[in-house]
Design a protein that fits this description.
6% strand; mainly alpha; 168 residues; Diphtheria Toxin Repressor, domain 2
């Protein structure tokens, strides 16, 4: 009786609190990855805004809120605060703009995205309208070595939609 209850209790604690495979640990890890992806998505949004409008025009806050994060407004605000705290973006004139540090990070992300689009089209022969979604996922797990390899495999200047691929 009592041994079974204690064993069950210990098992439950281990299942919840195990450092690697526990439910709480996995939830924390998943949340951290989701937050990182949200931050990176925002950096990409700011970079693309700069490409269209120039660095002198901050991305309006309404645009950030409207287009930003899949995880919802709470995650979006947390990602924005984290980017400001990490000095990758700064608030300016009712919007946000990239700092040089954030621009470097965003450039590599957009470079990854566009290189993946080129790779997916040239190697998997996906139609242009099917390139964005997989590239959007792959950009978040692409290392510098992978970017270098992709640049060797595809035209490192222009993506399939005709957009220039940011330099290394």
């Amino acid at each position: 009786g009592m041994m079974a209850v204690v064993a069950g209790l210990l098992f439950t604690i281990a299942m919840l609190a195990a450092p690697r495979h526990g439910i709480i640990s996995k939830l924390v890890q998943r949340t951290l990855v989701t937050l990182r992806v949200a931050r990176e998505d925002l950096l990409g949004l700011f970079y693309r805004h700069e490409e269209l409008h120039g660095a002198d025009f901050p991305t309006p806050a309404e645009k950030v809120v409207k287009e930003a994060v899949v995880g919802g407004p709470v995650l979006g605000r947390l990602a924005l605060r984290t980017l400001v705290r990490r000095e990758e973006i700064e608030r300016q004139d009712g919007g946000f703009r990239l700092t040089s540090r954030g621009r470097d990070e965003a450039r590599q992300l957009v470079r990854s995205h566009r290189l993946w689009e080129g790779y997916l089209q040239s190697h998997l022969h996906l139609p242009i309208d099917h390139l964005h979604a997989p590239a959007e996922r792959l950009e978040h797990v692409t290392s510098q070595a992978m970017r270098d390899q992709l640049a060797e495999d595809v035209d490192p200047q222009i993506d399939p939609q005709g957009k220039s691929i940011p330099p290394k």
